[in-house]
Design goal:
- This protein is of the alpha/beta class.
- The chain folds into two domains: 3-29 and 38-143, Immunoglobulin-like (Sandwich), CATH 2.60.40.10; 150-333, Serine Threonine Protein Phosphatase 5, Tetratricopeptide repeat.
- Helix content is 44%, strand content 21%.
- The chain has 13 helices and eleven strands.
- The protein has helices at residues 3-6, 21-24, 148-162, 166-179, 184-196, 200-213, 218-230, 234-247, 252-264, 268-281, 288-299, 303-316, 323-333, and strands at residues 7-9, 12-14, 40-52, 60-67, 72-79, 83-89, 92-100, 103-112, 119-121, 124-130, 140-142.
- The strands form three sheets. Strands 1, 3, 6, 9 and 10 form a five-stranded mixed sheet that branches. It has a four-stranded antiparallel sheet with strand order 5-4-7-8. A two-stranded parallel ribbon has the order 2-11.
């Protein structure tokens, strides 16, 4: 089991905002390019809250600065308590991305206007909990600026969610959005609770509020797509998930659920592209995409391709409850070679 399979970075990552430059400065900057002014320094400390970790966190993170066109500006490897620093940064729009073991675990959109202070500090603080692997693409930094009182209430609500005290969490989050209707992460958490409780109308409303306040909020966009799939509003799911993929083409979850949505509206050729992209972005976390592809190929009569997808799935999930059924399908329909999914070697043919 790898390090990233032993731990999970909680979806509610905490961002310690040392400056309001990204939230409050004018948004008149252009994309980095010819004629843009150099000279800015972007830096910050990366800290990991280990209070809920099963073991000391010795992981190394890659902090990466991309332009909004996803062109790499620079990257640095930083450990817990370390500092990243990017010098000679253009004014313009960027993504600050954090990766662990080549898996994206946070993506923060930021903007550096031409009139910004020369040295811009952006600290990153993560809460780490013992458990499963991090989920790629959906994890976002919560960069919403709250008062100290509202931050305390929000953190308490998250603790209640973790303890499965959903009624108490709902009460706290509702109180929070009543006091500050612009708190889009709180609306998103409310949507999640309603979704868990299968109150799809309330979930759609809450996710819709979050997206209205932050149209590129990838977590809410993907979740709203899932709500619509649950309601059999498949065309509506396609629409919102297309927006999600445009907002973050590197979101494995957005690509996976857009593939699911295309399957639901019987557009299998489009579904294949997005399911494969999800697998490319997160081969382990999105392993179920192999099952969806296999079912699609089987229905279309391409049983050999279906067998290959089942084989790839079993490489990643050998303990799948119906593994033997898949192995039987592979033997009956796959290429006449030894299946890598079958743990038992085939007997050598008699001379």
């Amino acid at each position: 089991m790898t390090r990233r399979q032993r731990f999970i970075l909680l979806i509610s990552l905490m961002l310690a905002l040392q400056t309001a430059v990204f939230a409050q400065l004018p948004s008149s900057s252009s994309q980095p390019g010819a004629g843009a002014r150099r000279g800015f320094t972007l830096f910050g400390d990366l800290k990991v809250d280990q209070s809920q970790a099963e073991a000391p966190v010795n992981a190394m993170f890659d902090v990466i600065l991309y332009t909004r066109g996803n062109e790499l500006f620079s990257r640095q490897r930083v450990g817990n308590g370390g500092r990243y620093r990017f010098n000679n940064v253009f004014n313009g729009d960027y993504y600050l991305v954090v990766e662990l073991d080549n898996l994206e675990v946070a993506r923060l959109p930021l903007m550096i206007p031409a009139n910004a202070v020369e040295h811009i500090r952006q600290d990153l603080e993560f809460r780490w909990k013992g458990g499963a692997r991090p989920a790629a693409g959906v994890v976002e930094v919560d960069s919403y600026h709250r008062t100290q009182e509202h931050r305390a209430l929000y953190d308490k609500a998250l603790k209640e969610i973790k303890s499965n005290n959903l009624a108490k969490a709902t009460e706290m989050l509702q109180s929070l959005v009543d006091a500050d209707p612009k708190d889009y992460p709180a609306w998103n958490e409310l949507g999640m609770i309603h979704f868990i409780q299968k109150d799809f109308v309330a979930a759609e409303n809450s996710y819709g509020k979050a997206i209205e306040l932050k149209p590129d909020y990838i977590t809410a966009l993907v979740s709203l797509g899932r709500v619509r799939l649950s309601q059999k509003n498949n065309e509506g799911a396609v629409s919102v998930l297309e927006t999600a993929v445009k907002a973050d083409p590197k979101s494995a979850s957005a690509n996976y659920f857009l593939g699911e949505a295309y399957l639901s509206v019987k557009k299998g050729s489009l579904a294949v592209n997005y399911l494969n992209e999800a697998l490319k972005l997160d081969p382990i976390g999105m392993a179920n995409a192999h099952l969806r592809l296999a079912a699609l190929y089987n229905l279309a009569g391409y049983k050999d391709r279906a067998a290959l997808e089942y084989n790839e799935f079993l490489k990643k999930k050998p303990d799948y409850p119906e593994a033997q059924k898949l192995r039987d399908y592979i033997v009956a329909n796959g290429p006449r070679t030894k299946s890598t999914a079958d743990p038992k070697p085939s007997p050598s043919p008699n001379p």
